[in-house]
Automatic annotation (TrEMBL):
Source organism of the structure: Paracholeplasma manati
Function of the molecule: Forms an intersubunit bridge (bridge B4) with the 23S rRNA of the 50S subunit in the ribosome. One of the primary rRNA binding proteins, it binds directly to 16S rRNA where it helps nucleate assembly of the platform of the 30S subunit by binding and bridging several RNA helices of the 16S rRNA.
Record bears the keyword Transcription: no
Gene name linked to the record: rpsO
UniProt subunit comment: Part of the 30S ribosomal subunit. Forms a bridge to the 50S subunit in the 70S ribosome, contacting the 23S rRNA.
Protein name: Small ribosomal subunit protein uS15
Database matches in NCBIfam families: S15_bact
Lineage, broadest ranks: Bacteria, Bacillati, Mycoplasmatota, Mollicutes, Acholeplasmatales
Domain of life: Bacteria
Family, as annotated: Belongs to the universal ribosomal protein uS15 family.
Keyword set, alphabetical order: Ribonucleoprotein, Ribosomal protein, RNA-binding, rRNA-binding
PANTHER family: RIBOSOMAL PROTEIN S15, BACTERIAL AND ORGANELLAR, SMALL RIBOSOMAL SUBUNIT PROTEIN US15M
GO cellular component terms given for this protein: ribosome
Keyword rRNA-binding among record annotations: yes
């Protein structure tokens, strides 16, 4: 259920601010969104996997906190990221 190294590197390259950026809020939100999408697909098939469901809820909460931080600190980047990831839609 974890995303592959190649996919994670592609997400980092797409959302990074500069060449050394691997942990900014935008990058972490993009990686969490990919993991959330994969967990949703997994739970659509395995409806009684409650441990994965708990992990999904934790990732959603973490992404929510990152989005709140980004909205508070940089509203323009927040709106661009929301549109690019097709969230809130």
């Amino acid at each position: 259920m974890a995303i592959s190294k190649e996919r994670k590197q592609a997400l980092i390259k797409e959302f990074q601010i500069n060449d050394k950026d691997t942990g900014s809020a935008a990058v972490q939100i993009a990686v969490l969104t990919e993991e959330i999408n994969q967990l949703n697909a997994h739970l659509a098939v395995h409806t009684h996997d409650f441990h994965s469901k708990r992990g999904l809820f934790q990732k959603i909460g973490l992404r929510k906190r990152f989005l709140a931080y980004l909205k508070k600190s940089n509203l323009e980047a927040y709106t661009a990221l929301i549109e690019k990831l097709n969230l809130r839609g």
